Each structure stands twice: as C-alpha cells, then as structure tokens.
Fold these 2 entries.
Entry 1:
Amino acid sequence: MSNAKSTLRRLLAGAALGLTALGAQAQDKQLTLCWAAWDPANALVELSKDFTAKTGIQMKYEFVPWPNFAQRMLNELNSKGKLCDLLIGDSQWIGSAATEGHYVKLNEFFDKNAIKMADFMPATVEGYSTWPKGTKNYWALPAMGDAVAFTYRKDWFARPELRAEFKQKHGRDLAPPATWDEFKQVAQFFQNRTIDGKKVYGSALYTERGSEGITMGVTNAMYAYGMEYDNPQKPYDMKGYINGPGAVKGLKLYKELYDCCVPPGHGNAYMTEDLDAYKSGQVAMQMNFIAFFPGISKDPQVGGEKTGFFPIPKGDKQHAQLGGQGISVVKYSDKKDMALEYLKWFAQPSVQKKWWDGGGFTCHTAILNAPGFDKSTPYAKVFLDSMKMVKDFWAEPSYAQLMLAMQNRVHDYVVAGKGTPNAALDALLKDWVEVFKEDGKIK
Amino acid sequence: MKPRVFTQWTPPATAVPAANLAQAPGAALRAGGPATGRGRLAARNGLSDRALAWLFVGPTIVLLLAFNIFPLLWTIYLSFTNFRANRPNAEIGWLGISNYQRVLNDEAIWENMRTTAHFLCTSIALQLLLGFALALLLNRKFRSHSFWSTAILLPMMLAPAVVGTFWKYFFEPQYGIFNAIARFFGASGNFTMLGDTQLSPWAIVLVDTWMWTPYVMLLLLAGLRSIPPYLYEAAEIDRASEWTKFWRITLPMVMPFIILALLFRSIENFKMFDLVDNLTNGGPGSVTELASIHLKREAFEKWRTGYSSAFAIILFVAIYGMSLVTVRFLDKVKQR
C-alpha cells in the first residue's frame, strides 16, 4: 500500500513538473503585442496566425480602448514594464519613446535584414518611424497608415428631391464637398432635416476634450488656411504660425461648423461617438479616421452602397491630420529577438498584401502602387489621396503637454464659446512657449 | 465539555478608588512595569506586554508609514523639483518654491478652485437641506417605512463612476430620459444639460446630490433618533409650537450630526473625481473641471510631476485646514 502511494506521489510530481515545464516553454515562445482595441487590431490577430504557424511563436494581445490607450501604454513604458514585447504606439509618442529609450533603435536590424524604409510611403516613415524628425533614425516600422477623412450618406445624396432642392438653393449638384465652404453648405442643408421620418443633422465632427479628439479635428480646417506649427526655417519659432491669420480662420470655421451643423450634445465626441452618430443614421457626414472605413463599409445599416467616402476638403491648401502608427520593439522586453523576428515577417510585401486584404492599412509602396489598388475597396482611393497630404501634430517628448494645452484652448473656444479665435490661439502660443522653455528648446 | 476558566485580574486588596490614584490601574503594565496578571501570562509565553502591543500595532504602523507617510513626504520633496515621471532618466533639478508660486499664479487653477467651490457649496447645501427633510420624514412611523428607507439609500450604494456614466445617458440630448422629461415640460429639442456651459455645472451638482443625499439623511436620522423623547414631552407640557420644538430642541440636538455631515461631504466633494470625470470630463470647455480633475491631468497626462505635487500639497493643506475649522466648530457645538 505504501509502495503504491509513493509511486502515485512520484507520478503526480512528475506530471506537475512536466506541465510546469510545458507551460514555461509555451510562455517562452510567446510574444505580447499591445495596441488599441479597434477593428484593425482584430485584423492583425487574424494576420498573425500565419506568423504563429510559420514560427511556432504564440501571440498574445493587450488591446486597450482608445480613450485609455495612451495613458495605459505610456505608464507601462515609463515604469519600464515588460507587459508588451511589441507596441503599436501612436505617431506622437515617438519623440518621447526614442528620447527616453523605451523603443529599440531599428537601423541596424533593418540593414541586416534588408528592410528598406524606401519601400514604405514617405509620410508614414517620417510620421511613424523617425526621431528626430528629418533624420534617418528609425524606432518603428510603419504598420498602420491612417489619416482623417469623411464618410457620407451616398443614398441620401442620391435622392432626387434632395438633389433638386440643393441645386435650386446653391446652383450646383449635391455632391461630396471638395472645399470647406461646400462642406458647410452641405452640412447646413442636412441639419435638422427630416429623412424617412427621422430628424437628421449635418455632420459628426471631432470635439472630444479629454485626450486628443478636438485637436485631431480642428487641425484639418486650420491646415487648410495655412496654419503651421512653427516656422519651417526656424524650429520652435511659433509666433505668427500657430496663431497666424490662417490658423485663426480655420479655427473660426470649425467653430461655425460646430455651431451650425452637429447633432445636439455633440460637444465631447471622438471616434466612437462619431461612428455611433453615423451608424445610427443621425448624420449625413462623419469625420473619422480611415481605419474605421472597412467596418463602415460592411455595416448592415449604413454599409455597402449607402456610404461613400471623401478626403478632407480644401481651403487655400489641403492637408489631412495624420493618424496611424508604427510597430516598435519595447526595450524592456525579454524577448526582443522574437519581437524582431515578428517585424521581419511583418515587413514582407506578401504579408503586407494580406494585411491590406484583411482590413489593415499597409504603408508598403509595393502594395499601394500596384495597379488597381485604388479600386480594390471603396475607400482605397481616399486612403491613397489622404496619405499624400498628411500633416502631423508635434511628436516632441513633451507632446502630451502640447496636446492638452491645445485641447483646452480649442475646446474652450469651439464648444464652450469662450473668447475669440485670436485669443484662444494667442493663449495656446503662450502655453507652448512655456513648454518649450521648460524643455530648454527655446530661451 | 469542560468550561474554560479565565482568571480575572483584580486590584490588590489595599487598592484605593481609581480616581484617587496618581496612575490609573494597569498604567504600570502598559508602561512595562512589574509583570502581574496578563503581563505574567504573556511573560510566561516569552513576550512582555509592551512587545505584544508592538506586535499588534507594528504591522499597522509599518503599512501607515509605507503607504501614507512616505508618499506624503516624497510628494513634498518632489514638489520642490522639476521631476517628471515620464522622464525617469532626466536629471532632477531643485526649484525651491517655484512650483508653488506657479500654481498660485496660475489662472486656470483659480478657475478650477472657483468651480470646485461652486460645486462644493451648492451640492452640500442641497444635500443638507434634502437630507434633513428626508430624515425628518423617515423619523416618523408609517406603512412600508423600512422599504422606503432602503430604497432611498440605493444611490449611495452605487460606484460614483457608474453613477456618472448612467447619468450621462440620462442627460443624452436625443434619447436621454432627463431630456425627455425636460422636453415634456417645454424645453427645446436642442436642450442639453452637459453641452451647455450654464447648465453643466448644475448637472454635476444635481447628480452628486442625487447620489449623496441619502448618506446625509442617514447621519441626520441617527441624530434625530438620539434625541431623548422626554425633551419633546416637556415641550408638549409647556404647549410649545411645532416650530419652537424644531428650533429649540431638534435643530440644536442634531447640530453635531449636521456638522459631521458637512465635514464628511466637504472632504469627499473637495476630492470628487470619478463621478465628474465620467459625467462631463471637465467640459464643456473647462466649466466643470474640478481641482481634482485638473490635478490628474497635470500629473498623469501632462506628466508635470513636480508641479502637480505642489498643487496636491496645496489642496491637502486646504482640505486639512477646512477640516480643522469644522472639527473645532463641532467641539464648540458639543460643549454648548
């Protein structure tokens, strides 16, 4: 009896040891990828199954909802956490992540593995990978191209009675607006109109206050009238640029659009709120990142032929706010080699093709320049056109301070109606000067 | 089962009444004096009373030092530096009182303080008023009394973040129940509580009042129930009116509880964060940005750790001072 007991004990101990070893092995062969929780992340999960099949490396994911994404991930990096081996971080984080040494520098790895940055769309390399800007120091591989653009209700725009009324009123066809003036006309035309027995509104715009929403929206209008962050010839010289006449004009226009043409209670709206407003049939047009367009295209309520897409309208100029991210290897990871192996796999044109087909937004020129790409999906042309005219917010190590200052000043003016556009931008200039002084970048 | 026998410590036969002793009985033991009674028992097991006391109190003191005192001291230290938590590799510079000067000269901070003061004063005034009225109501016996008592307490049992989130939906301009009611009473179709700069400060007051009035009611109800009935009986004999009874008996007797409610709610509302963050996130513009929300943005979004530490210390001193004044007032009321 005692022999049997001891044998049983040995067997159990052996099994436990075996299981622990297997578990440890499985953990050793596992990478954690961190990103925001949204549609493209699901596409990446599907795509990465090929990587697991090819290498045997299991993939684990940490997807955080957008409103908490920056804070959660930046906390993780600042505390030198080992949660993420790979991080698809926002373009504006690159300055801070490179300066503080959170990301692995990839130049040597790219050279060794013949990954050429020239194979990726220049705007995405500049926006997602390099720091300092204008140099060839790479900290990320462009992973997800994105910019702000618009969707519109093609089915409403095609209604004969609406078309006739619009033509009579404005002397032109009801069509996706090409300029900001046209945009305002169309938005006003739809505002408070009853369609299919339901009251509808002009457009869903970005107005969110807490993170980056209203800045991602208003800059599109400000760029259109010549706003620059600083003097292109003299970095950090911002006077007359961020608060110049063009910037003031763009900000004023955005306020007018907010006042005339958004649904009631739309004073704190970002990606999700705009999507909700559009998908529930409340608005004729919606401002959002192109990354959401595949989902809208497939939506049972508003997808298919009911929706069309158009890029950011023109003013004196035409620029779209850059979105999107690069994929980086986190310096604190214990599995940097495996993470680099993932990057190598991801950079292949065949994988990038699959990425696009699955709903991701490739930045690889071999795919983007392939014949017929612009017709491959209803939003491919808007994506291509938008990516050619993108501009990004500051990517400085102090980007969060710069961003929140802009959020406060712009939201105070646009949504709360405080003061004038000039006063808002003058105050913003003062805030930014203080930030750069603290950083020692200006005296 | 054999009953356990406990030995009761008894004073020596020559003992004099405690009031006449220079030292209270047991004080010598607490001071580690001659081992008698429990002291002997503990000593027999190898631990003196003093050691035993440290054994019990020690872990709490260690935890208190680790999680309260050390962070407080560390925050005070950081408030004199330019430290940023998102730049751990940067050199930390000593700034003296510069962060404090900047906080106190920052217009945005004063605006936040005004917003906080408005929120604090209006919500507490409403909660005291409604809480007292409800307590007076529930102090009477009526049918389904206990059901109503429990039902009224429900809001305070919810998490503030949850309350903030679902009131946000109540206030939703197109399908929110609050707006439907407002429209029923003649509000326009575009009526919005949270999007309007005039109304949104009242929206946070309304929600906080809804949530915390039951708590104030509970405190005041305890006060009402502690009033000896013979006071009212004496007043009845003197043919005092209802108003006189309320003014001369109820209010003075409940006053310490009112001050306690004021103290607890002031401290809570001064550091109110989650409810307002979920409800308005400080907007529209910054009209509902309370000091706590501003502090969080400075500390964990802008990463100005030194600056926000100075702000936190100033807030701490303000709350501490406010509480001290209230406690002194409470003592005075009790002494009357």
Entry 2:
Amino acid sequence: MNNAYNTALIRVRGLSKEYVQRSPLTRTKFTIHALKNLNLTLRRGATLAIVGESGAGKSTLVRCLALIEKPTAGEIFWNDVDLLGLKKDELFAMRHKIQIIFQDPTSALNPGMTAAEIVEEPLTIQGIGASDERRTRVLELMEQVGLPAKWAGKLPMEFSGGQRQRLAIARALALEPELLILDEALSNLDLANQEMILQLLRELQAAHGLTYVYVAHDLNMVEDVADEVAVMYEGQIVEQKYAPAIFNHAEHPYTQELLAMAPPLKSIIAARREWDCL
Amino acid sequence: MKFLGRRFAHAILLLVGISILSFALLQWAPGSFFDSMRLDPRVSAQTVNGMRAEYGLDQPFMVRYARWIGSVMKGDMGFSLAYGTSVGPLLWTRAKNTLLLTASGTLIAWLMAVPIGIWSAARKGTLGDKVCGVATSTLLMIPDLLLALMLLLLAVRTGWFPTGGMISVGAAHSGFWSAAPDIARHLILPAFGLALATLPILVRHVRSAMIDALESPFIQAARGHGVPRSRLLFRYALPAASNPLISLLGFSIATMLSASVIIEVVLSWPGLGPLMVQAILARDAYVVIGVVMLSSVSLVMGNLVADVLLFVSDPRIRVE
Amino acid sequence: METIGAISGDDCMGSVLQVRNLTIEYGVDGAEQFRAVDGVSFDVTRGEVVGLMGESGCGKSSTALGLLGLLSRRSARVSGSVVVGGKELIGVSESDLQEVRGSTISLVFQEPGISLNPVMRVGSQIAEVIHAHRSWGWKRCRAEAEGVLERMGLSPVERIYSAYPHQLSGGQRQRIALAQALCCKPAILVADEPTASLDARSQADFLALLRGLKNELQISILLISHSPELQASLADRIMVMKDGHIIEGGSIEKLYENPAHDYTRAMLRRTTRSRVGSEEADFVLQGQFAE
C-alpha cells in the first residue's frame, strides 16, 4: 500500500473558492473564503484521506476535484493537463475518470428509477455501448458490489441504507473511473456495511489500481483506510503526510490538536484505568 | 427600513402597471358610455360625437391615460358619466361601507377559524377532527352566490334580520352614532356570510400549521421535559405556527374585497361591489378604473402589512 | 433469562432506574409489526453512568423514548416495567408522566438544532421547564434559569438568556438542551447520542461539562451512544445492544479485552489499529511530501 514512488495523478495549485452571500433583508454582502490558495498532490493508486472539522472546506475541495464546482482561482492538473482550462467536450470526456459518492445515498439516487436504470444512467449519458451491452455491464456491476441481479428492477426505497450506498458505488464504477472520491460516504452506515464496502473498495483498488480520496471529519475513522492523510483547516491544507507519520509525528499544531481531541479507544481505556485507580 | 423602502417601491411600480393594464383593457373592450345614446334615434350622431369629444373619449389611449394620471396626482380621479359626479367622493363613500363589511367579516372569520383550527389539530385523527373536516369541505363546496342567497332566504323567511341595505329608511338621516345599532343589525348577515365564505380555507390553514408545529421535534423535546399539554399548545405550538398564518392574514385581507362583491350585490350592501358591476355594465370608464385601482391598493397593502408582521414576529427572519 | 444489566436484589441500594422486560413494538394498527426493543432489563444505581451502546437501528433510541413514555400510543405498544425513583411509568396516564419527566427522569436529545423551540428565547425555554415543575412565579423561575445558565458555563448570562437558538453555536445549543434537562435536578439523565451532532472541539467540551455536572449533582446517567470512545470516556459500565436485545455487558476494559461476542469485538476493535511503532515511523518521516 505504501508505494513511495507512485506518480502524481492530480496536482492542485493555488485553488481558491469564494462564495458571496447577500442577506436579502439588510443587503449586506459578505464573502466566504471556502478555499484559500490550496495546494495538494494526489498519488495514483493510493488512498488519500482529507480530514478536518466541519466548515474547513473539505466538501468544497472535493466538489472542485470532481468538476462539479468551479473554483474562483487556481489550477487542477490531471497528468499535467489543466482541467480547469478544458473546453466543454474535452471536459465531458474527463468526467468519466473522476467519480464522487456522497454521504447520503438516499438523496443521491433518483427515487423514481429502478436500480438497473440508476446504474445504467452514466453509460447512457456518455453514449457507451449498445443497449444490451449496457444491460450486461449493469448486471456485472451489481454483482461486483454484492447486490443480486434479481434486484435490478427494484426501486431505491426498497433497499436499506447500506445497499443504497452500494448502488451508488456501482453507478460510480460504471464508467471505469480512475479516481473515486468518497465524501463521508460511510458515516451513515452500520459496521457490517462499512466493512463490506471497505473490503470491496480494497479489492477494486488492488485489481484496477484505483485512486481514492476519502473525506472525513474524524481522524480515527481514517486510520484503517488511508495511505496518506491531508489535514485541512480553514480552506487550506496544513499538513500532508503518510498516515503513520500523521498519527505519530504530527508537526502542525492544528493536527496535534485534532489528534488530541479524538484519542484512540485504547488510550482512553488506559487513561480511565489510571484515573479510576486514584 | 431599507427593506420596507424596497417593498414600497415595488408596490408603486405594481400599481402603475395595473393602472395601465386596466385602462388598456377598458379601451379595447367593445362599447362605450354613449352607445345607448347612439341607438336612440332622437339623438343625432353629431350630438353623440360632440359629447364624446367633450368628455375626451375620442382621444387616443395614451393621451387619455396621461390626462388621467395627471389628474389623479392632483387628487381628482375623474368623472363618472353615469352618476354625473366626480369619481373620488363616490368611491370614498362606497369604499367606507365595503371596508366596514370586510373588516367585520375578516374579524369574525378569524375569530372562528383559529379556535376551530387549533381544536381540530389538537385532536387530529379523532372523530371530532373528521367531522370538522367534512363540515369545512361542505362549506367550501357551496358557491358564494348560493351561500348569499341562502342567507337572504333565511332573512326573508324568519324576519330575524333585515333583508338588505345598510340602514333602514328613516334612520339614514340621524347621526352616525345613533344610527350605529341599526347599521349593526344590517351588518350581521352580510358579515357573517362573508366570514362563512372564507372560513373553510382559513380553518384548514390554521389546522395544518398547528399540526406541523405540534409534530416538530421541539414539541416532543419540551414534552419530554414535562411541560404540560396546554402550555405546549399555546406557548409553543401556536407561536411557531403563526409564521405561515400571518402571511395568510395579509392575503386574506387582500382578497376580502373580491370575496365581498357577491355578498354586497345579493344583500344590497351599498359598497364597491354593486358600484363596480353597474359601472362596467354602463361602460363608466373612470369609475371602473377607480374601483380596480382601489382594490389593487388594498391587495398590495395587505401583502405589505403581512410582510411587516412577519418581520416583527419571526426572529429568524430578522438579521442582527 | 439472565438479565445482563440488572443488579441482584440486595445490591439495589439506591437503584434509581429499574427496567424489567421492556418491549417496544411498532406498527400497532394492522401495519407490519416490528419489535424494536425485545425484553430488555437493566438497572442504574445512584451516581452511576451506564452506557447503552449499539449501532443505529438496534433499538437504543426507542428505549430512550419508551422510558419516558414519549412514544405515541397510536404507533407503538410499550410493555414491561420501568420504575424510576420508586414509581412505575408504564401504563401510567399522561399527566402523571408529565410530572415525572424533567423532575425525576430527563432526556437530552441528539440534535439541539431541532429540539429547541426556534421562536422562543433559550432562557425562557429553561424557565418554562422550571415553571412546569415548581409552583413558583415567573420571575423566580427566570432567576433560577439564569443561575442554571451560569452553572452551564454560558456567559454572558443576560445575552444568552435572551438569545434565540439560531443565534447560538451547536455546542452552546447542546448546553441549553442539557440545562433544560438538569434544571429541576432529576435523579437520572438519559442522554441520547448527546455529542453526535457536535464537532470534535465541542464534543470534548461537552464531555468535560457532563463529567463535572455528574460529580457535582450526583446524578445517574444512562448514556446512549454508538461511539465506543464516548462510552469509554464516561461510562462506568456498558451494555451492548443489538437488534433489540442486550447481548453483553461490563466495563469497557472487559468488553475490550474479553468480549463474549464477535459483534462487540468488531465494534470496539475497528478503530484501534494501534498507531505505528517507531521503525516504521522513521522510514515514513522521510516519505513526507516534499514539493
């Protein structure tokens, strides 16, 4: 997992994103700087976790990476091609390489479409394959995420939360992306589902060399998952290191603070034992 | 304050737009005041044309409109061809009567709707609530005209209420305050009729606003802290429900004017309704425009009042 | 059936809460019957913090609502016995329950954003709870509420009292919710995922507050949470809940070192892959991103 010499897949330079908000009643304007001159590098085939408190700008960052939001300034290089400078049709072609999965599967799936239609949609939009080829691929994908083919005709509401998330993943995989972004995608799932999906993602990474970006607000959540961790604070990346280095040798005061605020279970138990013995 | 200023400016623009539109529609509608005269063989075409010229009816649209706006600015709303007096005072007396009617009607309607709505919401799903639902649906289905006629029938058959008009003959000449009880007696039926016409919608809105409030998590939480039921209903749910209801209040004030037309006509209440009907039939242009503008003003005012009330009552809308 | 969380009769000195065979079924009127809580029994003694740990859907939130009789009779059937401070709560009238709620047993909900009245000042909301249980005039209730705010560390008291929920931060709102629950000094506080909607910083603060108050007021706490870290920080004893049953109980140490169920092991071990030993750390230091 620690491929120290992997090439960089994505390089983000000086990314900035501002939102201007107006209060409708008093007409005052205030600017929110969601991203401030942010730099980030993502290695191919690795899992990068982006961690920070709510409001730090993590979701804004990944939405820019997924090309669903346009930053105010900066560049995103994909293999040395600036994504933000691409023309419309080139951009369209790029979209299938980067896919994003959100926290709430329920709102990400069209409640009126069947499971098969949902998974097929990206293929239809990108115009890939003939109708029956697509069908076969859809069933393949469903099997891959552990959903039986006979459920293809069911509606999202007939699935449980974990199953819906798996459906969202199947849809994301339809276009054979190279980068998969998970924006707190596992937070709402129970343990069993989390394990299953993590296992699935590991297998896919091993088989296809996928790169993952995993967004979380809690360092403990990413220990199992991340090769590298980038700590985000107020629109900037304050520290980015290999995972063990972050956990054991954090340098930036904010990272240290984050670690201190959420100690691992073992040390809590140890501390408690001492405290109770007093 | 800026907020109010903007709303006010919007309102003015709206009113100007409405005035142009109504003027235009009236211009394009077939017929004019003097048409009946044309049919009369004793009056020559020359005379008719002369009269038309005198009243400026042969001028192009923009000219007439400009002249009208000009005189409105000076406070003169035009001349009523049918009544032979200026429009302003004519409208004013009628408007006062309509205002009396709609104010009483609104008051009665809300005084009835709020308790019924709260009661219904607090007993959601029970027999009482369902009966209430059926009753309001039935009332809703009855056309206003039928309702007014039923009330008229009631008055005629039982003799409990005067059968029309605002004031008894003879009492009209005494001062306002001594005539007041007499007016009040005449007011009961039309005001009540107006209230009944608008009641079903109000009850439903109150009920659904209360139900939304009662089913909110914060009511559950307060209940969990031991706050007694009556206090939950009136100190927690009702204020939270009042947000949508206040907008509704403004709207109901605004639309009362149109709702009152039928009642006024059927029960002969001397308000703007009958005036407008007669003026339209007679093609009395300036009266019609005057009434339309007046009701537009009341609609816009009603909404403005609702916005201000909302601003004052809901702390979430205010910005520190 | 052995009641895992229950304490044998003699040890019941000051058993503040006794739950026996609590069963909660949803879907009363002909709809699908679903048993959210199935025959749960446990005790909480005076001054103890007992944790109820499980994932979402295991029945822990239903338990919390069921204890206080907050489930609508039309949608849920609750049976069994819940005795708080000597009084039975199951099957009792709404007005009797209303007396007990907030004064003997209190509940703190998960999301203060929606459990506070948005159009009432927060101080008044606390005063309302006091007013519901004491026969005092409003002025005295208000003064008492201000005192409570101070004890919660919310200051300046005047400004906070007259603030509306949307003007306060998440952490402050949760303190207000806690203030409402504790203002009438109940014997036991039921906290349902109290820190789930808070960020890490506010969580830490809230935890410290809760610990302090617990010692100061000597109240018992039933802590309902899916987070092993939270339970480990606060609870004296933890019960693991799954599919409506309590499958295991004990101190956090025992559950960690010696879990009887795989489920428990999975839940606790998940986030505790120990952080790396030094050799790997040294190598990895070199791997820091240098660009």
